[in-house]
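Field: COMPLEX_INPUT
Field: COMPONENT_COUNT = two
Field: RESIDUE_TOTAL = 1017
Field: MODE = joint
Values follow.
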Amino acid sequence: MISYMINHIPVLIVIVPLCGAVLCPAISHFSPSAGKRTVIGALLAAFCMSIIQLASVIKAGEAFHYWLGGWQPPYGIEFVIDGVNGIIIVLVSFIGFMTALFSSPFEEADKEAPFRSAGYYSILCFLVIGLLGLSSTGDAFNLYVFMEIVALSGYGLIAIGEKKGPIAAFRYLLTGTIGASAYLLGVGLLYSATGTLNMADLAIRLREVDNMPVIVMAMACLIVGFGIKMALFPLHGWQPAAHSYAHPAADPMIAGVMIKIPAYAMFRFFFCIFDSSLPMMKTIFTIIGIMAVLGILYGSLKALRYDKFNKILAYSSIGQVGYIALGFSIGNFYGIAGVVLHILSHAFMKTGLFYTSAAFKYRYGIHYTDQLGQVYRKMPVTCGALVVLSLSMIGLPPFAGFFSKWYLALGAIQNGQYLYVAVLIISSLLSAIYFFRIFEMLFMGEKTVVEPEGDSNEGTAPGLEVPLRMLIPIGFAALMVIALGLGNSFIVNGILKTTVMGVL
Amino acid sequence: MTIISIRPFLAVAVSLLAALLILTLGNKVKPNVREGITLSAAVIKAALVFSMVPAVLSGSEYYFCLWEIVDGIELAFRTDAAGMIFACVASGLWIVTSIYSIGYMRGHHEKNQTGYFAAFAVCLSSAIGISFAANLVTFFIFYEMLTVATYPLVAHYRDDKAKASGRKYLAYTLISGQLFFAAIVAVYAVYGTCDFKAGGFIEPGSVSMGIMLLLFFLMIGGGAVKAGVMPLHGWLPSAMVAPTPVSALLHAVAVVKAGAFCVLRVVCYVFGPSAVSWCGADRILAWFAVTTILLSSFIAMRKDNLKARLAFSTIGQLSYIVLGISVLAPYSIAGAMFHIVAHAFLKITLFMCAGAIFVTTHLSEISTMGGLAKRMPVTCACFGLASLGIAGLPLLAGFVSKFNIIRGALLMGKPLFAAVLVAAALLAISYLIPVVRIFFGKSEEIGDCAGTASGHAADVCGGHGDATPAMLIPIVITAAVSLILGIMPDAGLHLYDLAVMAADAITGGGAIV
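Field: COMPLEX_OUTPUT
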């Protein structure tokens, strides 16, 4: 029984949360809190399974192919798990579980309107399902399906956020649909040229295709598609509003993880499928590099102008996604190692920062940084985590942000791309400006934190600044940033080296 | 011989642990318990560091590797002679500064003491990490930790002035830190290693002169900013807004010495004397140092605020170390390293006296301190002794280091630098001795606090005594040590021997006493 289950883990990781998400509204009809717990439990199970999956992939030393329904490719859909997406699946399921846990004080089960909170948990779970599937799949059209699941869930979660949520969601819907269509167009072009949708098969058949214009067109469509989903400059227009106004408890997932997985998909296409020895790839990567540099500078500079905490973090993300694109443009082992490490570390950093932002909103209704006056006295743990996460974002050792910067810089210098090193440094310094401004408000600001009317903290155990279900994710995010920093070599050497070197 | 031992790592870790304890427990336990944590951590750390001296003196090194921190580079500690010097000074003086801090912070009824003592602990941890780092990456990690940990100390008072000087401090240190980072990555990419090696691992001619100069100055920028080499010294005078124990620590022990130590590591353990002189960087660095020494002395003479005067004195004295290193002679390098010790004890005495004067009499401008010696004889006597030491008078620690640097300069055929050092000694006399004369001269209205801030408790002002014992004893200790080290440089921890050993290793055995 156990071995049967282990054989099917790749699909179980997607199916178990799917069952949870679908059952949640039904169960909530009888017992609202049970519905919520179904989702949380399903995501926890997915997390545990993802660890088992990663362990077995590392032990086996080669990629794991799972054929859905037993139907073989190139007609059947397959899930392919290797070192790179193994870690990403662990990341997504872990943060999904943490976010669901974190959401519970925000969306207390409500006997009068059981479907409201049930709907929230269900959509959140679908978001995680989409991301998990997106990371696992080895089929180009299957990727589109999961990408749309992610997008639809994202629209929903943004729309139920703050007052401007629906508008932000609508903007995202328009641009996101264009992006998804671009992706579909690209895949269509590739299908017309090769006759297959399976990624491994595409890789082989593309080498034999003579029709260069089709391939270039397909690449362009894919860059636009992924670029919109990733919020890569200049395709980022939807992102700041969407990340600022999303539902506060789902925002960590949206801002920290949802924009990263399309970046992973881009890695799959441009490094594993397309022939990277083609001369035109150099041009493509240079273009991506230019977009990356502009995005990094734009994001870091724009973030200086705003006072709204979430807006600052959103523009910072545009810069950080630029780091990932920069890594693609660098393209050697250290560049890709930097990219994967950055996906992992930025996921925890941004997620953690949005957790703290939501915690401030929950406790004191703080949206703007100038409302943060000396809040550390009341919320020490949250502010401590905020300090750790911010220092990591700036790229200071010994936190994770520094090490991904190290690999990217090393890769850039090995390739002679000195401009990229300069851009990384400038971005770090600009981030230092807006994060230390936040510190100044946090620790030295005029005291403006006022206890809101009534008891905003009911339901919290006495002595805790926010409920434990919120403190634990915040603490974990900070701890993971430290652990990823100090232990990055285990990931790079242990997991990435074999996988990435095999690909490059 | 290399001894594998966890002691270097423990020396770093003990104060990190103390910082964590202070942060979590700080507001919940009595202040004495919190201070007890600081003091016990300081004593344990010093004990660990001092215990490693005998083996290092006999030529061995302690080595401890935690794990691989990035692909191909380990988070490793190695106690060589140069590192031991800095570590002994830092850990020894932490005990002294902690006792002094307790007296100062309580005497001044300071707020936010928990954060203060926690940040202090992290600073010391970083300082020991810097001294024992075995490669550039480990070094850089602790170097940036030092920057971040000293920021809350500089901005301690949390008013607008503190915020502004904190920003200035961060601007200088973070920018230079990032350039340092770029240089480290470049060196690793080109040479494939970044382990410190006595005499350097960069061969002259391995890259073009222009590139080597670029790499050198990117890397030395990090050290030069923290060491206050002009024109990168701007953060130091404005950092004076910090409480005096912070200034004592920043300007005698942790930050500035870390900068000087960084210069030492870069010039002697990364590039090496041959590469540095091949590309001409030593001459450029030496001239920056000379300019700093002379210019800072002139500026110091014009400052009426005691701490400001001492700040510019520090800037000048640190460039003695930089000059000694850039002369590249065995004697001068040994002298420079010993000056790390000598200046630490001398300057910390001066700053602690300034702080004691401020807490006891609320005076900060020199012109108002006439006749202070009548009220605070011990403090003023120690101040006088330390001033003579800074000027380089024989029998005090400052003479030993200066003499060696001058000797090295003369032996290398650079008499101009020797002349500069002699001139600087005269300048030091001219900005410190007048202060002593004022102390021992005609008295002003000090005894009854008339004209100074009113409304303070009688124990602080209007009393008749010298500084409280918590502040006075550390001052006397450091002044005494400066005297002892001047007479017998090898007393106690054999720091002079260590300096000679290190200089020998760097220059491959030029003849030294």
